[in-house]
From TrEMBL:
<dbReference type="GO" id="GO:0010019">
    <property type="term" value="P:chloroplast-nucleus signaling pathway"/>
</dbReference>
<feature type="repeat" description="PPR">
    <location>
        <begin position="225"/>
        <end position="259"/>
    </location>
</feature>
<feature type="repeat" description="PPR">
    <location>
        <begin position="155"/>
        <end position="189"/>
    </location>
</feature>
<feature type="repeat" description="PPR">
    <location>
        <begin position="470"/>
        <end position="504"/>
    </location>
</feature>
<comment type="similarity">
    <text>Belongs to the PPR family. P subfamily.</text>
</comment>
<dbReference type="GO" id="GO:0031930">
    <property type="term" value="P:mitochondria-nucleus signaling pathway"/>
</dbReference>
<protein>
    <submittedName>
        <fullName>Pentatricopeptide repeat-containing protein At1g12700, mitochondrial</fullName>
    </submittedName>
</protein>
<dbReference type="InterPro" id="IPR002885">
    <property type="entry name" value="PPR_rpt"/>
</dbReference>
<dbReference type="InterPro" id="IPR011990">
    <property type="entry name" value="TPR-like_helical_dom_sf"/>
</dbReference>
<feature type="repeat" description="PPR">
    <location>
        <begin position="330"/>
        <end position="364"/>
    </location>
</feature>
<feature type="repeat" description="PPR">
    <location>
        <begin position="295"/>
        <end position="329"/>
    </location>
</feature>
<feature type="repeat" description="PPR">
    <location>
        <begin position="435"/>
        <end position="469"/>
    </location>
</feature>
<feature type="repeat" description="PPR">
    <location>
        <begin position="505"/>
        <end position="535"/>
    </location>
</feature>
<feature type="repeat" description="PPR">
    <location>
        <begin position="260"/>
        <end position="294"/>
    </location>
</feature>
<dbReference type="Pfam" id="PF13041">
    <property type="entry name" value="PPR_2"/>
</dbReference>
<keyword id="KW-0677">Repeat</keyword>
<feature type="repeat" description="PPR">
    <location>
        <begin position="400"/>
        <end position="434"/>
    </location>
</feature>
Length: 651
């Protein structure tokens, strides 16, 4: 085959990707459907006239019905002499465009085994394309092997189809290797090959690599089309690189590549993710000026983005615009509204939207039911949540794991942990296996419901079932054991975690420190805190928990020391720590004036920012402010830095 100015011969031994799978042409079943719906074709009694008719219908896109395509194939199969392989492949191409991939493969087998037609490169390219779209990439490479055995040489399209199959299967790295291999063997990549690679890379999140292939495409003097540009812009937007996507959009315009609806939609999604509404409006105006009407998908992006920002009024306005434009809201549109109403605890409004969509003929999906169930659970109205679960069944929907997890969490939050446990085990009866998230929710409910033995039993059952338990599962149990006052058991569990192959995280450390402080073991808690510095740096919560333990034990000097460490690390006191400090200063003027000043120094900003102080605390705050004002000059004279003041206070 001539490739550019160079003839290349490719044989099986030189190609690295051949599969050992048997050729699918010898294993696929044959299924030819007969029909009588060929009135137009039957008018042409002469075989030649029929073939002219068939070719015209295929080339101008008039064969839009799958049954009609099969009728045409059946008519061709009855002809004597049998039409050429070229005519059959023309019709097979139509069947592939109609996405009936399995049937197309069966028809090729029928041509080969029943009609005696030897497949050519184009026919086998069609088979490879179908297999790749069915995610049967190994069989696709097997057909490539058959091509070699038949003495047929692959084309650029053959290898591009295989590259597409690898991308569809998510194996983009091998697709890139295959593309490089193609070029080394003298097969030049064309626009379609580049487009397939760029699209595959973007879908797997390798957008920057996709950009490099885009530039490589331009270096080879191929002009990227709107599909390639749109794929890259979509990937950039999903990676949060909206500025780069807009630059590429401008580049498109400079190169006279007109954007399409997909281009605008991916840019609008990217801009909405960052709340850049003014630019969204400009893009919509540009679309309308170009005669492009935003479709339901584009408008749904606006509705969903407004809902995520809590801007329900604007979301409703977009839906109104959608209806005026002749677009019918779909289940995604309604679910965005329902979800935000549920989050805002406006369940009457959420149910109103639900009833409106059902009465309007738009069937809800599992996501809609799950949103409503979550809303009623959050509202602690378990009866309504269970009612919706029953309605799901009546409408033919099977609750998924997310729905069950939501419902179990709702029962736990309502203080009905035993009922939640029943639901947990009922999942199996409905064919759903709890995942790690479901187990976490159930375990947390049992621990907070003071059902510690049940919680321990659940973890033991999870261990026996070979679930991949993570540190968060054990941290939940650890918290439950600490809360029940069984510190010895908690320490044993904590110490055993590394032996289970788990890295103790900041959450587990903080729970253990809190448990030790609660039992008055401040020194041991401090040792654990120091140990964290080597393995897992403490966070804001860790320090607050430890300072609270110090304040509870009236360890004022040490608490000031750790408040200083917190401030130095950029951490701030939380509400619980602030309350303990205010309570202490309300009943004590401080062991020394300097300690009072230091307390003011470390918490005053947080108190003022909070802005919500009880009347009983205001006098204390006024005293703190006065202490800060009166002592600041003295402090400056006595010490050159705040570290000296701290050292003085903690002597």
């Amino acid at each position: 085959m001539l490739l550019g100015s160079k003839r290349v011969t490719l044989n099986a031994s030189r190609f690295l990707y051949l599969s050992s799978f048997p050729c699918l042409l010898h294993t696929m079943g044959t299924s030819i459907v007969t029909s009588t719906n060929t009135d137009d074709a039957e008018r042409h009694s002469n075989g030649t006239q029929f073939l002219i008719f068939m070719r015209h219908q295929c080339r101008v896109g008039q064969v839009k019905n799958f049954d009609e395509a099969l009728d045409l194939f059946q008519r061709m199969a009855r002809m004597k002499p049998v039409p050429s392989v070229k005519d059959f492949t023309l019709l097979l191409g139509v069947i592939v465009r109609l996405r009936h991939y399995t049937t197309a493969i069966s028809l090729v087998k029928h041509m080969y085994s029943a009609l005696g037609i030897e497949p050519d490169t184009i026919t086998l390219n069609i088979v490879i394309n179908c297999l790749c779209r069915l995610k049967l990439i190994s069989f696709g490479f097997s057909v490539l092997g058959t091509m070699f055995k038949l003495g047929l040489e692959p084309t650029v399209m053959t290898l591009t189809n295989l590259i597409n199959g690898l991308c569809v299967q998510g194996n983009v790295a091998q697709a890139v290797v295959l593309a490089d291999h193609m070029e080394k063997l003298g097969y030049p990549l064309d626009v379609y090959t580049y487009g397939v690679l760029v699209n595959g890379l973007c879908k797997t999140g390798d957008t920057l690599v996709a950009v490099r292939w885009l530039r490589k495409m331009e270096e080879r003097n191929w002009k990227p089309n709107v599909v390639v540009y749109s794929s890259v812009m979509d990937g950039l937007c999903k990676d949060g690189l909206v500025y780069e996507a807009l630059n590429l959009f401008s580049e498109m315009g400079a190169k006279d590549v007109l954007p399409n609806l997909v281009t605008y939609t991916c840019l609008i999604q990217g801009l909405c993710n960052f709340g850049r509404w003014k630019e969204v409006g400009s893009l919509l105006d540009d679309m309308m000026k170009m005669g492009m009407k935003p479709d339901v998908q584009t408008l749904n992006i606006l509705v969903d983005s407004f809902c995520k920002e809590g801007k329900v009024t604007q979301a409703k306005s977009v839906i109104g615009f959608m209806i005026i434009m002749g677009e019918k809201p779909d289940v995604f549109t309604y679910n965005s509204l329902i979800h935000v109403y549920c989050l805002q605890n406006q369940m009457n409004e959420a149910m109103g939207i639900f009833n409106f969509m059902v009465n309007g003929g738009c069937l809800p999906d599992i996501a809609v039911f799950t949103s409503l169930i979550h809303g009623w659970c959050k509202n602690k109205n378990i009866n309504k949540a269970m009612y919706l679960l029953e309605e799901m069944g009546k409408m033919g929907f099977v609750p998924d794991v997310v729905t069950w997890t939501t419902l179990i969490g709702g029962f736990c939050q309502a203080g009905q942990s035993l009922a939640a446990k029943d639901l947990f085990f009922n999942m199996h009866k409905h064919g759903k296996v709890p995942n790690i998230q479901t187990c976490s929710v159930m375990l947390d409910g049992l621990c907070k419901g003071n059902l510690l033995s049940e919680a321990v039993s659940l973890v033991e059952a999870m261990e026996k079932s070979n679930l991949d338990l993570n540190i968060f599962i054990y941290a939940i149990l650890l918290d439950g054991i600490c809360s029940s006052g069984k510190l010895k058991d908690a320490w044993e569990l904590f110490s055993s975690l590394p032996a289970k192959g788990l890295q103790i995280n900041v959450y587990a450390y903080t729970i253990m420190i809190k448990g030790l402080c609660k039992q008055g073991l401040i020194d041991k808690a401090e040792d654990l805190l120091m140990n964290m510095e080597e393995n897992c740096p403490p966070n804001n919560c860790t320090y607050n928990v430890f300072v609270q333990g110090l304040l509870t034990k009236k360890e004022i000097a040490r608490s000031i020391k750790y408040l200083a460490i917190m401030k130095d690390k950029g951490f701030s006191v939380d509400a619980a720590t602030t309350k303990l400090i205010i309570n202490y200063l309300s009943t004590n003027k401080g062991d020394t004036e300097i300690q009072e000043y230091l307390f003011a120094y470390y918490i005053l900003d947080e108190l003022l920012i909070a802005g919500e102080l009880q009347e009983s605390s205001k006098k204390t705050i006024a005293r703190l402010i006065a202490a800060q004002d009166s002592l600041v000059e003295t402090a400056k004279e006595e010490a050159s830095s705040i570290s000296n003041i701290i050292a003085q206070a903690t002597k």
